[in-house]
Amino acid sequence: MTPVWTPVTDRVFVTTVEPHAVNVGLIVGDSAAMLVDSGNTAEQGAELLASANERAGVPVTHVIVTHDHGDHSGGVAGMEGVTSIAHENLKAFEPTRGFSMAVAVDLGDQRVEMVNFGDAHTRSDVIVFVPGERVIFAGDLLEQGGDPQVDETTSLSNWPTVLDGVLGASQDETRFVPGHGTVVDRDFAFIQRAEIAMLYSQTEMMIQQGTRLEDAATATEWPFTAETLAVALPKAYAELAAKGIEPKRQLPILGL
Ligand SMILES: [Zn+2]
Question: What pTM does this model have?
Fold first, then answer.
């Protein structure tokens, strides 16, 4: 594997690694550089680091891991001598530097700010802002070319609020690097935020109308695939049940 680094700006690059087509970012300053995510395995991480050093022309000193999923975190094990940064809830490895809310790193003249706005895709999401380049690495908070992915650690109720924070810190011309897929603009991010919000609010409305989980996927038009809904709807029902919002027991229909 020889990573091909595609420019997002003069000093921000992205490459995509398999098997999950995960995006790995490279942010370059005048004296140092930083990787955003690390690939799947130690071997992949080492290859990414070597090619990033070459592409950057300055040493890669840091790697930020956007969240606790193996396709983003697994390569750190192959990046010896590099300072790893991650949210304190990340469990995949012991980062050199864990943080709870925000941390910044200066790569010489390039400042990188990393923020956690609360639970969303996982409990360890980090959004990476590169203000000087007007680029935001969104991790899997945004997905292009496929649906946003839900697992047991996801907060569907809070995810739109987190994206509001991301969007609020962006500008019209900001470019967003999603966890998977091509670079997107602010309109794309707004639309995906609305779709994720719709998943939760529509589920709440359907529950109040008595729709049961097994009927939810076909009860309305969703902006997601059946495969995504098979995971996301049970999660939405579970989050709402935890707030006491559950389908009312239906009375048996008599006289049929
Ligand atoms: Zn993920």
Answer: 0.95
What is the per-residue pLDDT across 66-114, written as a single tens digit (0 to 9) for each? 999 999 999 999 999 999 999 999 999 999 999 999 999 999 999 999 9
CB 116, CB 97: distance < 8 Å:
no
30-62 pLDDT, tens per residue? 999 999 999 999 999 999 999 999 999 999 999
Distance 121 CA to ligand 1 centre (A): 7
Q: Strands across the sheet with 127-130, in order? A: 102-107, 110-115, 127-130, 135-139, 175-178
- How far is Cα 92 from Cα 112, in angstroms, rounded to an integer? 23
Cα(249) to ligand 1 centroid in Å equals 36
* DSSP for residue 250: P
Rounded to the nearest angstrom, the distance between the alpha carbon of 15 and the centre of ligand 1 is 17
Assess contact for 103 and 65: CB atoms under 8 A: no
- Quick one: tokens of 62? 């840091």
Q: How far is the CA of 245 from the centre of ligand 1 (A)?
A: 27
Beta-carbon neighbours within 5 Å of ion ligand 1: 69, 140
- Cα 11 to middle of ligand 1, angstroms: 25
